């Protein structure tokens, strides 16, 4: 079997590395801080094909649904292989509207979701509060989506590291500066590596790797997202939320994702600001204002972390998986807002690609995209 070097230490690289090793390849992950950085570290961990469905992106929605279908088996196999819990939670999601104009927007969205055959149901304000007692009494109802779930993305990364180690994957804590025919990887410390095959899964870092100038290597741009982590209010034992709540607040989107330890992830902004991960006061203020408008109890929580990450965006928001113009060098990037959701699917596509195995028409189309 081939000696494969996977470049990157986020969820796409680590899940691909694990899948490749389970396919019998000899795998090395090349990245400076695997499992501890990138968009994967800051993400919210929502597995949300329905509430992520956007007008004009029906092809992406089909892919997200396919990705979601892989999660139950993937979560079970990963927890068994790593001996770690990943906080995979299938409780479901509620999206709520703050005012009448937000309600009208949600009704449009619901009609679109139904036009795609998605499982989503209109709920009145009181039905929403029955599901989530912590909601503000002044909301205008919402949409219940039973099939949108979540995973603790940091627990996921930890489990992937452990599963990779247990499978014999090795780690080279280095930064790749260039790739060349061979295939050859040039490292920032001056070393040169000559594996049989390479998978470039470095998120937005792909654009910093030299040697990939020709098509079909994808254009990936950084899309900044601010996100907060809040701890339980001092002295409380019951969690504020028991399911993911998304909201439309005077046209702004916000989400609150509860973790098993009582903490809450609140996100996220979507900003075109280049590769800047500065945490800005205005964005933190905006997220907190929107979150407390739908769940007033947020005021009492402990602010534990404010961070910003870079989503790897593509012109059509679809991921890019395929061969580059250098023999035996593949790429897997561009997962934009849904890389956690799409990680199991991407890993199996990468393994099929490197193993030169036939794929379903849906996945063939993805690889050619
Ligand atoms: C605020 C926010 C919230 C999000 N919420 C969700 C969500 O709820 N659900 C969901 O599905 N998705 C979510 N996403 C999107 C998701 O996080 C990304 O799509 C996904 O993490 C991309 O994974 P990746 O492995 O491609 O890239 P990254 O996680 O960014 O990892 C890139 C890795 O490559 C390494 N690297 C970069 N350059 C090099 C190099 N030259 N040499 C070696 N290594 C290199 C980096 O060090 C890093 O380890 C969110 C993103 C953000 C920013």
List the helices and strands and how they pair.
Layout lengths: L2 E5 L3 H12 L3 E5 L7 H5 L3 E2 L10 H12 L1 H12 L10 E5 L2 H16 L5 E3 L1 H7 L10 E4 L3 E2 L2 H14 L3 E3 L3 E5 L3 E4 L4 E2 L3 E4 L20 E11 L12 E6 L2 E7 L5 E4 L13 H14 L7 E12 L6 E4 L5 E5 L5 H16 L6 H8 L1
The structure holds flavin-adenine dinucleotide.
The site of flavin-adenine dinucleotide has 43 residues, from α1, α2, β13, β17 and α9.
Molecular structure report:
The chain has helices at 11-22, 38-42, 58-69, 71-82, 100-115, 125-131, 153-166, 281-294, 339-354, 361-368, and strands at residues 3-7, 26-30, 46-47, 93-97, 121-123, 142-145, 149-150, 170-172, 176-180, 184-187, 192-193, 197-200, 221-231, 244-249, 252-258, 264-267, 302-313, 320-323, 329-333. It has 369 residues and is α/β, with parallel strands linked by helices. The strands form four sheets. The chain has an eight-stranded mixed beta sheet with strand order 5-6-4-14-15-16-13-17. A six-stranded mixed beta sheet has the order 8-2-1-12-19-18. A hairpin with a 5-residue loop joins strand 15 (252-258) and strand 16. Helix 1 runs parallel beside helix 7 (153-166). The protein starts with a strand and ends with a helix. The mean pLDDT is 95. Bound molecules: flavin-adenine dinucleotide. Flavin-adenine dinucleotide binds at residues 7-13, 30-33, 37-40, 42-46, 175-176, 201-203, 205, 208-209, 225, 227, 267-268, 309, 311-312, 333, 335-341. The site of flavin-adenine dinucleotide (FAD) has 43 residues, from helix 1, helix 2, strand 13, strand 17 and helix 9.
